[in-house]
Amino acid sequence: MAEAVSKLLTFTAFAYLARLYGPVGYGYIEWAGTVLMCASLMVDQGFSAYGSREIARSPSDTGRLVAEVVTARFLLAVTAYAVIGGLAYLMADDRAISSLLLVYGLSLWALPLLLQWVFQGHDKMHVVGVTQVIRQTIFALVVFLVVQGSGDLVWVGIAEVAGVSAAAAFSVWMYFRYFKGELTLRPSFSRKLFREGTPIGLSQMFWVLKMFGATLIVGLIATAEETGYFAGAMRIYIALHTFVWLYFFNMLPTLSRAWVQGPEQLATIIGSSMRVVLAASIVVGVIWVAAAPIVMTGAYGTAFRPGAIALQWLAGACIAAAISGHYRYGLIAAGHQGKEMFAMALGSILIVPLIPLGYFNAGIAGAAAALFAAECVVLVCSWLLARRFIFDIPDTISANEALNTLPEATP
């Protein structure tokens, strides 16, 4: 429920920005947001999923993991903001975009203190939800109260900084309340953290290449107006896809504990979830395709109606992602994050030739169809990998022997 509220707030804020700036100006905002998303994933580097998984397996390691993850993230924030600064310098001729990038980037310094992953590992999901609501509520309030026209573009970045900072402050406060005995203020560094977290981080980066990189690619080959249509459809798709991500994000600790109990238990949980997700996907898919024109015009205005056909194709991409998530997060839970990264990388790399091919043959509808095709590739690849490395375990192998495949719990 909390995630639904937060995403509704975010989507409403961006719908307001789209109406305020129109397809062209909104395309610029989405482009800057894509840069920030890539930088944010550079800071996270997969440590959230890794830390949550390790805490679920061994709650007593909470303090050590927090010290290691926060230290690593602050180091990576230095690099990420330097990259944004360099890009802003290259775009100095366009002062509005350059300033927006620099202000947006300030939020990177608060990201290390977002500790939702700690509470996820301890199954305290109410804290995770409230943290997210605080972040998006502050962002939306600043947008609605302050952003009034083209001269206020930089305030979109200030809104993001305010939201992230407030959420980080809340999560740190809650950490003090719940884990006083686990607190350590001394920086810590772990090679194991980078060794096992980096494949997850790279997988997330490949996900961004698919989701946000698609808008960048379309922006390079299409008109600004068509980029705005496509970006509007992608914003709705990303908002809805977040619920798919959240579902598996919440399921990861359960999958991790199931793997410790044995491959059979993991397979049982995945099978039960798959039946529910498949049934829901059919219903959601039909409604999505039918309602796409109404949603586009209702959210952004009649000027964005041409983007409806792209949104319809993206329904298939979301369904494919909902199915593949069972296999991808199953691989992560079982310690095969490198193989999950490979599946995501394959689909992400394919969009580079597929999106231009689709666009030049069928416009933005073809570009969206390319994303659908890429998600299908991820689905097939992750299914094959999960079948080989999770489910294809001889009956003669006991659960204890299967546990020997897990990575060590100490750095």
SSE layout and pairing:
Elements: H1 2-44, H2 47-57, H3 62-90, H4 95-105, H5 116-121, H6 125-146, H7 154-178, H8 191-211, H9 213-221, H10 224-261, H11 263-300, H12 308-333, H13 337-391, H14 399-403
Helix pairs in contact: 1-3, 1-4, 1-6, 1-8, 1-9, 1-10, 2-3, 2-8, 2-10, 3-4, 4-7, 6-7, 8-13, 9-13, 10-11, 10-12, 11-12, 12-13
Specify the overall morphology. Answer: globular
Euclidean distance between termini CA atoms: 37 Å
Number of helices: 14
Domains (count): 2
**Low-pLDDT segments, ≥5 res:** 393-411
Question: What's the helix-strand series?
Answer: HHHHHHHHHHHHHH
Number of strand elements: 0
Give the C-alpha Rg. 21 Å
Structural class: mainly alpha
Task: Report the portion of residues in β strands.
Answer: under 5%
Described by strand count, sense and barrel closure, the largest sheet is:
none
Could you report the average pLDDT, rounded to the nearest whole number? 83
Helicity level, as a percent range?
Answer: over 70%
